[in-house]
Amino acid sequence: MNTHTHEGVLASLTAALRAESDPRSAMERAVAILHLELPSYTWVGIYLLEGDELVLGPFLGKPSPHTRIPLGSGICGAAATKRATIIVDDVNADPRYLACSIETKSEIVVPIMDGGRVLGEIDIDSDRPAAFGAVDRTLIEAVAALLAPRIAAEPSRTL
Ligand code: SME
What we know:
Helix content: 25-40%
Largest sheet: 6 strands, antiparallel
Strand order of the largest sheet: 3-2-1-6-5-4
Bound molecules: methionine sulfoxide
Structural class: alpha+beta
Oligomer: single chain
Mean pLDDT: 93
């Protein structure tokens, strides 16, 4: 993927989210656009933090057995705990990895932050090894920043 593709995806996403005030719909749109536009993004999902667990929200790809991930588990738990993006080029070489599909080779997890508070995260798996680079990190961190105020404003969220 080149920078141009990623910039186009971010532009479509920004436009789509501008028209979407409902947080759940905004998350669904973001997941759908990323999954559709970037073929190496095999599984795209959003986890939301509830207490000390990450709970799976909208996703596209094969159903995951990991619908609730404790903060101490997985690459997802590590990214939320560190409050930082994690890119894993070879998931099978990472002892933290919780397998979702045997085809998955690489993963990126980007926290969705409201100030210093973790609201959740965007998790993307690829069947390609080392599929995620700097342009992917920039794109997904921008998407997380677009979603954060919508999720933070959701009245039903108890964090
Ligand atoms: N691989 C993640 C678990 C989520 S599934 O990939 C959808 C992890 O290690 O935390």
